[in-house]
Amino acid sequence: QWYQRRVRVKQKELTDCKKESRKRKKMIAVYQSMLNTSGVNGFHKCTHCEKAFVSAPFLASHLERRHGIVPPPIQNTEDKLRIANEELEKELQSIKDKYKDIDEQLKGAQETREKSEALRDSILQQQLQQEEAHKRWLKIPRSNMLRRLRR
Question: What are the pLDDT digits (tens) for 128-151?
Answer without folding.
Answer: 999 888 887 677 666 666 666 766
